[in-house]
Amino acid sequence: MSEFRLTVAQFSATLDVARNRELSVSLIAQAAPSSDLVVIPENAMYSDPAKEQPDSGYSEALDGDFVTALREAAERGGTHVVAGFTETNPGGHPYNTLVHIAPTGELDGIYRKIHLYDAFGYRESDSVTAASADTPLTFAVNGITVGAATCYDLRFPEMARWLVDHGADVLVYPAAWAVGPMKELHWESLLRARAIENTTYVAAAGQTGPHCTGQSQIIDPLGIMRASAGEEADAFATAVISSDRVAQVRSTNPCLENRRFVVGPQA
């Protein structure tokens, strides 16, 4: 049996880049002693959900202050970290990027968001460049493979299945899930659905109110919620991820073996 401890941490990012960076580092430091993997939200470096400065924005390169601070925090805490930030794109609008940082502090992998949030009255594509679906972000923690995607990607079941087809037994979703009618229900329903249909753990770290739903949570391969941070800002939820649990559920519900279709990125 293999297992590890996973924590999802939530807070509300603002226009204050230094404050967001310090809070991100603080949350990682607090969670690290009891965690092998800490996941913090999408847009953790900079966020303007109220469109206070619609004609401006902020982005950094992968070797900028934000990712550098996360690398140092991961190394100090001896934990894996997944976090979302706005990455500078010299060729146009920035990318909405996830980074995976190893416990050594090494920048081990990146994922640039594929599905942009052009829905519910939002137009993410007006300010963000969509990445091509080339290689998914997966990595191992104590021998268990984790796959990562971002927020709106949750609404696309083929994205989750693509990660599972690359070996993921745990799916993590940093997010800034916007508030609105039925949005919390959609959030929880889709997280449970991705877990049940793929017989994987699903862990989601969301930004909190007033503009986002919070509700960071960890769900097991049978769809059972193992931990939730609720609506509270600067909060955590932690659960043990077990390869035995994945194997047990898949022996009862071998839907991955029984499937008749395959999925992959469009050409």
From TrEMBL:
<dbReference type="InterPro" id="IPR036526">
    <property type="entry name" value="C-N_Hydrolase_sf"/>
</dbReference>
<keyword id="KW-0378">Hydrolase</keyword>
<dbReference type="GO" id="GO:0016787">
    <property type="term" value="F:hydrolase activity"/>
</dbReference>
<feature type="domain" description="CN hydrolase">
    <location>
        <begin position="4"/>
        <end position="251"/>
    </location>
</feature>
<protein>
    <submittedName>
        <fullName>Predicted amidohydrolase</fullName>
    </submittedName>
</protein>
<dbReference type="InterPro" id="IPR003010">
    <property type="entry name" value="C-N_Hydrolase"/>
</dbReference>
<dbReference type="Pfam" id="PF00795">
    <property type="entry name" value="CN_hydrolase"/>
</dbReference>
<comment type="similarity">
    <text>Belongs to the carbon-nitrogen hydrolase superfamily. NIT1/NIT2 family.</text>
</comment>
<dbReference type="InterPro" id="IPR001110">
    <property type="entry name" value="UPF0012_CS"/>
</dbReference>
